[in-house]
């Protein structure tokens, strides 16, 4: 078995470019993968497309028109100048003539050029180089200004002058990534500052003896291996734009082997009210607005995000929003992005490729209109309903060579070899609590079948990453399965037309967070889920970007949807056709089943086919049973706090975020009877390629506030004073995180250095092993100006509850919150198996804490 397994590992080691197969009689099989002409043309077009915008960003803040105008003007002025003028005889002219003479040696046609022509192109070249120098100086000045973050800590005359300088250099109507070259690099904090901040953050959690021991560990670290780690980190900092982002993505996300469903992916809910109840109409509208946003990103016409309408944020995360898939690996996953013109629609357990653009390859693509998308989605929905009622055809088992990778699979294989073709079936419940071993044995009992559908195949993406990588190599490496999988992984995003609906936000949150474990493709950057009552939402993979980028997309789509329904206007797009790719086209007569008159010249959606034999079916059922166990252990609860929101909090002279964080500290203490390390996500997009940093919300001042609130003898003034002290301290901690002076990303990078040079650090091992039992995140809002285009009553009624994520610690909570003017929404997650957690109980304590805080100011 070991020799066979090694051969299999060798064959499936590399699926890109070339593959080396096992040896047969002294020969090796080598397979070369050559892209098709259409793929090569698409990749070439995409390359030149990106090259164009790369050059435009290099010229920023000047435009091509400005550069050409300056070059033409300088050339004309130089050519028409007198021979004895400085521009024709000065030192710069001499340098240019010498350069031209050297170039002439290599150009046989050089003597044929007239003098006036040579003067013209030399002057144009000098003007172009001069413009590059000017814009480089401007970008350098802006970079220097943006490197100063003093504006976050207070206002002064210096801040006003600084702001005027930034405004002068940033200009208006900038390309999406125009500021990326101007943003400063993330600074590396000093070792002593990080250590001091770390000690401050853990002191409230430790006894005096424990704290003294921790101080000794810190001192030993600073005086010994810490210095070496810091020097290596500084060296990396000098040669990279961001010393932590690459490592963070690789080691926190892609190297993770645990399931990404619940543990990594997050969900986003729809607004409380939906503009339309028809599923197809809602899905078509959202897809259309997603495509509009996609075009804005790819054409770099999306206005860069700023703070206070002035300070630019890094937009690099938007580059991988569409067409990105997390590809499983045995040891490490990989993010792959494709320039895609199709989406994949999941409906009733079937997958469909839906082209969503008009235009031939290499030309300007135009997205389908809402009406065109409606027709295509109605066709898919009708076809999938009929297909879901058909039973698979019985066929003889065709062995795949029993390429089994796990002990459970060996048990299944043995069971399959011994069992007869019984007609009795054993159906697995979607909420089964059986072990993987018993599930595998039970799943082996049905008769031998092959299936063309794809029900629950997505369950693989919900399970352990190494297991999914093995299954992908074994069963999706060739044939129709590989082709269908490729179509999914290269799609711009996934659309899931759910055949059910839910009465409450909490139920919809569950459906968006995990579905039934086999109906969400968790590897995909974005899954758009639309229920049959018109409500919608998202499930997003986390490694490629953080939630604010997706929240921007979602806000854009929802508000544009409302604006469209308000104005009742729709744009007409030209029609075009495209040849198919051979993936099971739907019958042509099914196009006429649309509710409306069929729109001509649309590419017929194509159902993806799957070759599922008994071995693969067993693996699917194993994966689905595993995901069902994970789902059963999730305790998710949503709290809608309607008593007050941000508007009231501001009247109390507290920051809304700090106010809510103190409420969470109070609620957690009341529910658990103790303090624990608290994680709040803070963004570092003020720096190039910045992602997040941790704000350690638990502090000495937050603990003092909680104790004051719980002390029956403390006065109202004492409690208000303690609250304001805690919120002010929290604001400083948050600003430190945003300006690159946080604790945890620095310590994480030092830890990676220690592993890289194989030097263990007792302090880093201890510090990074402390559990985050309370993990929190505030969700962004109003990232677009579109709300202003709505009538005031409609805009006020547009309430988005945001989304949520899973708990970081097995015995802790994951809490995200959305602070609106009149409402606060909380998404609370924990594990059913944890002894001391209850999401509903935590929600009750949060509402009680908020009520107690409000009573201080009544």
UniProtKB/TrEMBL annotation:
<feature type="domain" description="Choline/carnitine acyltransferase">
    <location>
        <begin position="186"/>
        <end position="393"/>
    </location>
</feature>
<feature type="transmembrane region" description="Helical">
    <location>
        <begin position="59"/>
        <end position="79"/>
    </location>
</feature>
<dbReference type="GO" id="GO:0016020">
    <property type="term" value="C:membrane"/>
</dbReference>
<dbReference type="Pfam" id="PF00755">
    <property type="entry name" value="Carn_acyltransf"/>
</dbReference>
<keyword id="KW-0808">Transferase</keyword>
<keyword id="KW-0813">Transport</keyword>
<dbReference type="GO" id="GO:0006631">
    <property type="term" value="P:fatty acid metabolic process"/>
</dbReference>
<keyword id="KW-0443">Lipid metabolism</keyword>
<dbReference type="InterPro" id="IPR023213">
    <property type="entry name" value="CAT-like_dom_sf"/>
</dbReference>
<protein>
    <recommendedName>
        <fullName>Choline/carnitine acyltransferase domain-containing protein</fullName>
    </recommendedName>
</protein>
<dbReference type="InterPro" id="IPR000542">
    <property type="entry name" value="Carn_acyl_trans"/>
</dbReference>
<dbReference type="GO" id="GO:0009437">
    <property type="term" value="P:carnitine metabolic process"/>
</dbReference>
<keyword id="KW-0276">Fatty acid metabolism</keyword>
<keyword id="KW-0012">Acyltransferase</keyword>
<comment type="similarity">
    <text>Belongs to the carnitine/choline acetyltransferase family.</text>
</comment>
<keyword id="KW-0472">Membrane</keyword>
<keyword id="KW-0812">Transmembrane</keyword>
<feature type="active site" description="Proton acceptor">
    <location>
        <position position="542"/>
    </location>
</feature>
<feature type="domain" description="Choline/carnitine acyltransferase">
    <location>
        <begin position="451"/>
        <end position="846"/>
    </location>
</feature>
<dbReference type="InterPro" id="IPR042231">
    <property type="entry name" value="Cho/carn_acyl_trans_2"/>
</dbReference>
<dbReference type="GO" id="GO:0004095">
    <property type="term" value="F:carnitine O-palmitoyltransferase activity"/>
</dbReference>
<keyword id="KW-1133">Transmembrane helix</keyword>
<dbReference type="InterPro" id="IPR042572">
    <property type="entry name" value="Carn_acyl_trans_N"/>
</dbReference>
<dbReference type="InterPro" id="IPR039551">
    <property type="entry name" value="Cho/carn_acyl_trans"/>
</dbReference>
<dbReference type="GO" id="GO:0005739">
    <property type="term" value="C:mitochondrion"/>
</dbReference>
<feature type="transmembrane region" description="Helical">
    <location>
        <begin position="119"/>
        <end position="142"/>
    </location>
</feature>
